[in-house]
Amino acid sequence: MIYRSACEWSGLRLLDAAGSPFPYSLPVPLPSSKRAGIAYSIGMHLAVPGRRPTSKTVALDRSLEALPLFRLSDSADEGAITYTPPGGGRWRVLPAPGDRLPGTFDQDVYVEILHRFGEAGFPADGVVRFTLHSFLRSIGRKVDGRTYEQLRSALNRLERTRLESSGAYQIASERPFEGTFTILSSVTIQRRRLTDRDQLALFSALSASEPGDARVVVSPQLRANIAAGNTISLSLQQYGSLSNPVARRLYRLLATARSQDHITWRISLGLLASQLPLTQRYPSHLQRVLQPAHEMLIAAGLLRDASFHQLDREWHVDYVLATRNTIAP
User: Fold this and answer.
1) How far is CA 80 from CA 69, 157, 161, 279, in A?
2) Is residue 316 packed enough to be buried (19+ CB in 10 Å), middle (13-18) or exposed (0-12)?
């Protein structure tokens, strides 16, 4: 133990295990009532995190964005998602045993992980590190015990939910992928030691509520596509401004269409429902779900127009897309 009296210190300078000072100090007001020395654990390692530079965009795997992945509700539906792309093949999203499919919260976690992956410089090993507290703050969620558990569950789902491609998913410069993969190939969450968490309350510059540090690894399939530039780009500010999860998913899908130089895009209502995916099947029900999302995207400037038309007894949606710089900066 290293002891310093309140009279000797107007601030605290941390010492390592050998008693040498760290190259920084933290001013910590000491309670006037503490006339005896205050003991600090030698083994404790504390650092003030620097402000992380924030990118305004996020690069997502274009091949994956064209396929359904997240249920647009957080229901307990455990059934697999099955999708047949117009170009052939088959795509399935299979929940882990005893768990549900990824939902709306998982969608936001996925986007933020890819954002942090880009901020880290797209590391070749796919490793992304963060604290649960900072992650929740980044996605605009309240930080409490419930959301910590939601985040842990979402990370585990992204690791354990199997994505099965039979010629549906395309990896850059390769034939259509045949096999199974996951969004994250590894997830590790290390809780802080209780002794360290107790000591954090002594430092006003640090949070005493940090529950742990996360280390996740983006899967090799996503890394290959991103490294090859087979990506779409989203504005994080625009994505975060969309409060409707269907609008957020539509933004990702419309950015995929815009990246292929489409100015207008017509798609059958049934195919769109499968691609998003939506659980509703009747055209009138699908239109009621999509209309608020369309209005939100138009108000945000991410879409110029959207209209429903019936052609030969089949319903279609006609989209007029925003400029490339607006929808996919």
Assistant:
1) 10, 14, 10, 12
2) middle
> Is there a contact between 225 and 63 (Cβ–Cβ < 8 Å)?
yes
Predicted model pTM: 0.78
User: Are the beta carbons of 225 and 61 closer than 8 angstroms?
Assistant: yes
Q: Round to whole Å and give the CA distance between 131 and 286.
A: 39
Q: What residue spans in the chain does CATH classification 3.30.1370.30 cover?
A: 242-329
The 10s digit of each residue's pLDDT in 57-84 is 999 999 999 999 999 976 666 689 999 9
End-to-end CA distance of the chain: 54
Quickly list DSSP for 96-150. Answer: PTT-----HHHHHHHHHHHHHHHHTT--TT-EEEEEHHHHHHHTT---SHHHHHH
Please, are residues 272 and 72 in contact by the beta-carbon 8 Å criterion? Answer: no
In this structure, which amino acid lies at residue 26?
A: L
Interval 161-208: pLDDT, tens:
999 999 999 998 778 999 999 999 999 999 865 445 444 444 444 444
* Ramachandran angles phi, psi of 109, nearest 5°: -65, -45
The C-alpha atoms of residue 121 and residue 139 are separated, in whole angstroms, by 20
Instruction: With beta carbons less than 8 A apart as the criterion, state whether 100 and 76 touch.
Output: yes
Classify 242-329 by CATH class. alpha beta
Chain segment 110-157, per-residue pLDDT in tens:
999 999 999 999 999 999 999 999 999 999 999 999 999 999 999 999
